[in-house]
Specification:
- It is a single chain.
- The protein has a six-stranded parallel sheet, with helices on both faces. A four-stranded parallel sheet has the order 6-5-7-8, with helices on both faces.
- The protein has about 270 residues and is of the alpha/beta class.
- It is built from eleven helices and ten strands.
- Bound molecules: D-glutamic acid.
- D-glutamic acid binds next to α3.
């Protein structure tokens, strides 16, 4: 079926983390409609094998196309992008697809000390896509990679005590942060959930350490892609719909907390 600029953009993540990307998308593209799909019933992705993530990504894309006739898809999850975006692009060639990846290049551009910490899921760090990105920056900075088991799950369930304990343990494991030579002055948040731990991380590391997330670049890239494919909606008042394979109340509370909006959330099988 022909696509149309008035159709919505689909956005999915393993859970609530992709709301950090949706926030930037709605700010940059206020005329667009969005459908946000949280796969919380099958999360976390980051500690599962890539086949599970590929299967879930395929099934969500099929549902978003069949139920909402999405005109484009934003994979608002680093782990799903790393494991599945090449499969989605091959299987849905007519659908414009945007992914997210840890912002290593922007971090290199910003870091003065050239020592950079990277927090991400185990799945993202182990992926061939991430290893290729890392290799492309060889010699430009020293990266310390930290898999953060459990952190996305703690953020997903809004477990503040566990979020603080895990952020403390993982930043300690990365090493010394600061502006002196050899210290890390930049931390890449390589999982969309971690944007919601920014306050905790700033409190632990101090305001001089730069935290890099990917909402704005992804939103700008989505705008360019919609424009290039003739799918940018010229005008309108954008609406967002929300659905989850987990508990609707959890997504509803996360939207209220982070997007300051009271919304209805549908349950998906
Ligand atoms: N939010 C996801 C990411 O950006 C993954 C969280 C998870 O399910 O492990 O990687």
């Amino acid at each position: 079926m022909e696509s149309d600029p008035n159709f919505p953009v689909g956005v999915f993540d393993s859970g609530v983390g992709g709301l950090s990307i949706l926030k930037a998308l709605r700010a940059e593209l206020p005329q667009e409609d969005f459908v946000y799909f949280a796969d919380s019933g099958h999360a976390p992705y980051g500690e599962r094998d890539p086949e599970h993530v590929i299967e879930r990504s395929r099934s969500i894309t099929q549902q978003l196309l069949a139920q909402h006739r999405i005109k484009a898809l934003v994979v608002a999850c680093n782990t799903a992008t790393a494991a599945a975006i090449h499969v989605l692009r091959a299987e849905f060639p007519a659908l414009p697809i945007v992914g997210v990846e840890p912002a290593l290049k922007p971090a290199v551009a910003l870091s003065q000390t050239r020592h950079i910490g990277v927090m991400a899921t185990r799945g993202t760090l182990a992926s061939a896509k991430f290893q290729t990105l890392l290799a492309s920056l060889a010699g430009q900075a020293e990266f310390t990679l930290q898999p953060c088991d459990g952190l996305a799950d703690a953020i997903e369930h809004h477990d503040a005590t566990r979020v603080i304990a895990l952020c403390e343990a993982y930043t300690k494991a990365i090493g010394l942060f600061g502006l002196k030579s050899g210290e890390k002055d930049t931390l890449v948040l390589g999982c969309t959930h971690y944007a919601f731990a920014e306050d905790t991380l700033h409190a632990l590391l101090g305001p001089q350490v730069q935290l890099i997330e990917t909402g704005l670049p992804v939103a700008l890239h989505t705008r360019r892609l919609l424009s290039a494919t003739g799918l940018l909606r010229p005008q309108g008042t954008g609406q967002a719909q929300f659905q989850t394979t987990g508990q609707p109340a959890e997504l509803q509370q996360a939207v209220a907390r982070w997007l300051r909006q009271d919304v209805a959330v549908a349950h998906s099988a």
